[in-house]
Amino acid sequence: MKTKIGILYATVDGQTLKIANKIKAVLIEKGNEAALFSIEDFNGEISDYDKFIIGSSIRYGKHNAKIIEFINHNKKKLNTTKNAFFSVNLVARKPERATPETNPYFIKFLNEINWVPNQSAVFAGKLDYQTYTFTDRLLIQMIMWMTKGPTNSKTNIEYTDWEKVDQFSVLINNM
Question: Backbone phi, then psi, for 71, in 5-degree steps?
Answer without folding.
Answer: -65, -45
